[in-house]
Amino acid sequence: MSNDVLILAESNNDRLTIVSSELCQIGRKLADEKGGSLIGLLLGGAGTKELAKGIIALGADKVLAAEADILAGYNNAAYTQVVSGAVAETGPAIFLLGCTSIGRDVAPRVAFRLGASYANDCTELSLEEGVLAAVRPVYGGNALSHVRSKPGLIAMASIRMKAFPPADIEEGRSGELVEVAFSVESGELKMKFVETRQVEAEGVRLEDAEYVVSGGRGLGGPENFEQLNKLAKVLKAAVGASRAAVDAGWVPTHMQVGQTGKIVSPMLYIAVGISGAMQHMVGAGPSKNIVAINTDPDAPIFQRARYGIVGDYKKVVPALTEKLQKLLEN
Ligand SMILES: Cc1cc2nc3c(=O)[nH]c(=O)nc-3n(C[C@H](O)[C@H](O)[C@H](O)COP(=O)(O)OP(=O)(O)OC[C@H]3O[C@@H](n4cnc5c(N)ncnc54)[C@H](O)[C@@H]3O)c2cc1C
Questions:
Q1: d(CA 323, CA 327)
Q2: Least trusted range by pLDDT, from 39-48, 50-59, 158-167, 272-281
Q3: In angstroms, rounded to a whole number, what is the distance separating the alpha carbons of residues 286 and 264?
Q4: How far apart are CA 223 and CA 314, in angstroms?
Q5: Ligand 1: residues whose CB is within 6 Å?
Q6: Same domain? 69 vs 123
Q7: For the chain: N or C, fewer Cβ within 10 A?
């Protein structure tokens, strides 16, 4: 096993995703501390080799590119095969992925095949006596689990999005680009990728938003999300929801924040009529500042909120919207 650190970069709409940059930043740091190289791995369809060069500008010494039509859309069997092969071939000390839909799906499969240790959804990574140590929020962010990789095994970890800063871009940085040799025949796969459907959502994406306004069952009905839309417009915020609001059919599934929804980490998260159940806080917990508006002073959300307003959102939200509009105009 080498001292190298390998990262699995991802792309979307012909661009490297933000988590790829975050992986490069922490990967570079760990590689320098271990005295190894940072190696990037990118899988995809046509154009992947060109895109992979961007990982060098983010700090990688070497990039492995696997380009083929069969990798154009995510297919877990094909990805598992190619990623496992690349990790086995490279023999890194540490292999990092994003805690994304792809990372969460492919990482345990690769870890099992290679007998690697694996920590999911890490918010801190460091070396302790040369071994990868990770911090993982558990129980909806109410506790932190400290884990260490077993010496002698490839240490795999997936990182929580936005928990690590992105890497600086260094244009003109030199590095090696290597094509990954692999053979995956579509006939060998038990499933096939059919199509990607882009959710048509207006405004800021929840995952990227600096400000999020979320509504829960306490809103009482779908029409009342209009009040949140007005507040969100003033703040240039994305609008999210609790699962209760989604399950009631008030808003679409892609707006759900939480364990079975999206994980967000905005600067400001305004939770309106949301009780703060553990499963919701898994998604909202990484927010830097939480403001809760709730009629029940004992609602658990107040334990996690920096600012709490005990009151009926029907009075609070319009007043807050008006005040913020005036403040932001000046
Ligand atoms: C396996 C599993 C996965 C789950 N995944 C998720 C997930 O991803 N995301 C998620 O959100 N939940 C998830 N849940 C559900 C979760 O446990 C809660 O049931 C849900 O989050 C509750 O949503 P809520 O806070 O909107 O509703 P409630 O818990 O009913 O809270 C409504 C709140 O609104 C307040 N309220 C009422 N009227 C007003 C008013 N006029 N003004 C202001 N406040 C008012 C009430 O005091 C109350 O606190 C999951 C559950 C399970 C079992």
A1: 6
A2: 158-167
A3: 7
A4: 12
A5: 216-218, 242-245, 256-261, 273-275, 277, 279-280, 283, 293-296, 299, 312-314
A6: yes
A7: C
